[in-house]
Design a protein that fits this description.
By secondary structure, the chain is of the alpha/beta class. The protein is about 55% helix and about 10% strand.
Length: about 240
C-alpha cells in the first residue's frame, strides 16, 4: 500500500525514527519505514525505491550518524530524483556533509533538539499538514485542537548559498560540451557513484575551462587518495 510519508534514518537513530512514526500515524498520516514495511522475502532495495516513488514527502531524521550513512545518502538522492519534497528533522546540532548539503540545499529544516524529541513532533506535523492538506490528519477534530502552524522554517544560510550555485550552473554549463561533461561524470562516478553528475554540474557553473573544472572537481573529494586517483584518470 502506498504511504504518503517515507521516513529515512540511520540505524543508531532507530528509536527516534519509530517514535516519530508512531506520532505521525496517531495524527492520521500514513508512513512507510524500514524494516517494518519491507515485505517478507522481498528485495530490500526494490522495496525502498518503490516506497520512495510512491511517497509524497520524505522526513529525514538527521544526525551525525545519518550524515555519514551511505544508505541515507542514496535514499535522499533517489527522493530528489523523484522530485519528492524532503523535510530534514535535525535531532543533533550538526551540519550536512558536502554531498548531502547539495541535495538538501533548497529544503526547509526543522530542529528537533534539544531532547526530548516529543515536544518537537507536533511542529513537524504542522509543517506536514501544510504540505499534505488533503491528508487524513486534517480532520475537523484535529483542526480544532491544533492551532494553524506558521510557515515552514527558512532554509539554513549555507544551504541557500549552495542553492544559488545550483541555479547558476544551469546557465554556465554551456562552456563545456555534453560529451566532456559526460566523460568527467563517468570518471568521477567510479569514485562517488551517481552523485558525480550533480557535483560536476555544480562545479561547472564557475570553472573557466576543462583543466580548471577537473582540478576543482578533484578538490571536492575528501580523500587525498581519491583526488590523486581522479586526477590520474584525467591525464
Amino acid at each position: 500500500m502506498a504511504r504518503e510519508i517515507f521516513v529515512s534514518y540511520s540505524q543508531p537513530d532507530r528509536a527516534c525514527a519509530f517514535e516519530l512514526t508512531d506520532h505521525l500515524e496517531a495524527k492520521g498520516f500514513t508512513v512507510w519505514i524500514a524494516p517494518r514495511d519491507v515485505s517478507p522475502a522481498a528485495d530490500w532495495a526494490e522495496e525502498i525505491i518503490d516506497a520512495i516513488s510512491a511517497a509524497r514527502v520524505m522526513v529525514l531524521v538527521f544526525s551525525a550518524s545519518s550524515n555519514d550513512s551511505p544508505q541515507v545518502r542514496r535514499e535522499v538522492e533517489r527522493a530528489v530524483h523523484k522530485n519528492l519534497r524532503i523535510l530534514p528533522f535535525r535531532i543533533e546540532d550538526v551540519l550536512p556533509s558536502r554531498s548531502l548539503e547539495y541535495f538538501l540545499s533548497s529544503q526547509h529544516w526543522l530542529d528537533g533538539f534539544p531532547s526530548p524529541w516529543a515536544p518537537h513532533y507536533e511542529r513537524l506535523c504542522g509543517c506536514l499538514r501544510q504540505w499534505l492538506p488533503d491528508t487524513g490528519a486534517q480532520s475537523s477534530q484535529t483542526a480544532t485542537q491544533t492551532p494553524p502552524a506558521g510557515p515552514p522554517p527558512a532554509a539554513a544560510p549555507a544551504a541557500a548559498d549552495l542553492r544559488r550555485k545550483q541555479v547558476q550552473a544551469d546557465g554556465h554549463g554551456a562552456r563545456f560540451s555534453a560529451a566532456e561533461l559526460r566523460d568527467l561524470e563517468t570518471r568521477l562516478a567510479r569514485i562517488l557513484g551517481p552523485i558525480a553528475a550533480v557535483l560536476v554540474k555544480r562545479v561547472a557553473a564557475s570553472a573557466a575551462d576543462l583543466p580548471e573544472l577537473e582540478r576543482r572537481v578533484a578538490a571536492e573529494l575528501d580523500s587525498p587518495e581519491d583526488r590523486t586517483r581522479f586526477l590520474k584518470s584525467c591525464q
